[in-house]
Every structure is written in C-alpha cells, then in structure tokens.
Amino acid sequence: MIKIQRAIKAVLAVMLLILIGSCDEDGSLGESQLNTETPDLSELDKYIRSNYVDTYNIDVLYQWNENVVDYNRFLFPPTEEQVQPVLEVVKKIWLDSYTEIGGEDFVKLVAPRQLLLVGGRNFNRSGTILLGIAEGGKRITLFETDLVDVKDRGNITRFISTIQHEYTHILNQTKPFDEQGFGRITPTEYTAQWFNTSIADARELGFVTDYARNDVVEDFAEMVNIMLVNSNEEYNAIVDAIANPQARVDIRAKEAMVVEYFDTQWGIDFYELQAVTARNTQEVIN
Which of 14, 93, 179, 214 has the fewest Cβ atoms nearer than 10 Å? Predict the structure, then answer.
C-alpha cells in the first residue's frame, strides 16, 4: 500500500513539472490578467481630484453605481454638466467656510470620505422628500443635483441646507452634544408625524423647522442648518417674528447650546462661521 501511494505521488509530481514547463513555454505563468493601466481622467475628474480628493480627502461619486443607491426608489445619476457647478457651490459655501474658521485640516480630518450625487428627487412613502443622507459618517448622499440653480438664492439655500444638516450629524457622531440637556428645552413636542405641522406652526412650538420636531438629534441639526443658511440678521428676524414668547425663549436656549457645543467641542466661534458662510453664499449668487 505504501509503495502504491509513493508511486501515485511520483506520477503527480511529474505531471506538475510538465504543466509548469508548458506554462513557461507559452509565457502565461505569472502574467496578471488585471488591467493595471491608469484610466484617463476627464476634466471633471481632474477637478474633483484637485479640489476634493487632494485638498479635503473626499471622493465624489457621480457616475451610476447601483450598489450605493436604493434601487427600490426611482433614482438616476446627475447630468454630468451639472456636477462641477454644484460641487463649486458646495466647496465655496460649506468646505471653504469651515476651513476658514476651523483651520486647514478641519474638514480633512472630520468629514465624509465620499459625496454621492443623485440627479433627481427622492420621495418617501409619506409624501415627504428626502434631501440627503449621512451614512455612518462615511458618505453624504445629496439628491436633486440636477435641480440646483446656482444663481437662485432660495434654490441654493434648499440644496446647501441638506449638507449643513447632514454634516452636523457627522460632527455629532464624532463628538456628541448634550442630547439630554437639549431635549429638556421642548420635551413634549417631538413627534414622528412632524410632516403634519407647518414650518410656521413648528416655530410657534419652539422649533426652527417642521422637521426639527422629529427628534432631539434632528432638532439640533436643524438649528445648525437654519443658522448657517441664513445670515445672523436673517436668523434673528426669523426668531423675532415668532409670536409665542416661550417659543422664542426655547429657540434661543437651543441656539445657546449649539454655540456652546461648537466652542467647547471644536474650538469654533459659531457666529464667525455663520458670518463667513453668509459671505460665501452671497459671493456664489453674485
């Protein structure tokens, strides 16, 4: 039995040597079948690499990839001609503003690693529209890319509010805010049916938007959002227009906690950030 096993091993060894020899003769052994050539970059790709990847360590996904979108929704990629103008707006208003106040490495160290751009709207079953998603701090998805008008203030505000809101979630995931303390300001007015409340009515309850009523985390992000998509004067006008005095007090209390969070956790003067963001927004529109 042992002799038979040895004979089989000897035959297999000879066959292996013959196989290796034949591979050597046709030169196929060791050749990679992978395409290792550097792909040609379009002008848009070069812009993304220079202004996002190299500068902020953020990649931009604009070509269709069914693995990173919800294929149960009617979604489509952005029109390619629309991508760079939108990215220029995002860079000027969001990235440049945080960099000016927070320092050159602020966004590079605390940022999503990817921005995913989707062309059209993303409708929820409730009839509301999903403007953006922050996925575990690694990716921000921005919808409605094809609908951005870089010269329309209201349009720009709507689009940028998405990234201001979602980026706040990433900041909070990195350094949490005082959720319990924040939640005690308007503890009884949060509701999953927030979309049944108008923005005007929500403000009379102590919330800057209707969506802020969803929960404490969204409330905090909406406070940051509304303060950054408006100048200080515009924001104060919104609060001062609220008829309910207690609602004004509550929103000011939330504002104070936002300002304290950015100061103690990030070393950022939030009112300076607000001023720079307002200036950059105006420069984009002009």
Answer: 14
